[in-house]
Amino acid sequence: MRYILLLIPCVASVATWLYNISEPMLFGIPFFYWFLMLLIPVSSIFIWLAARTGGDEL
């Protein structure tokens, strides 16, 4: 489960064909840029969740 939580933000950041558009704009920033800026805190949440659910399996 924890590896799936870590894989989701990785795939979302690499799949540029899904968000390589300029509309909709948010405060004059194209979608491509504000999606990547939004992905940073979302990735942090996924990493935190993976750490909380993973336990000491290493």
Describe this structure in words.
The protein is built from three helices and no strands. The chain has 58 residues and is mainly alpha-helical. The chain has one domain (2-54). The two termini are 14 Å apart.
Return residue spans where pLDDT drops below 50 for at least 5 consecutive residues.
Answer: none
What is the averaged pLDDT score? 85
Q: What is the CA–CA distance across the termini? A: 14 Å
Query: Rg from C-alpha positions?
Result: 14 Å
Task: Give the structure's gist in a few sentences.
The chain is mainly α and 58 residues long.
Task: Considering the chains and any ligands shown, give keywords for the structure.
58 residues; elongated; single chain
Topology, element by element:
Layout: H1 2-14, H2 16-19, H3 31-54
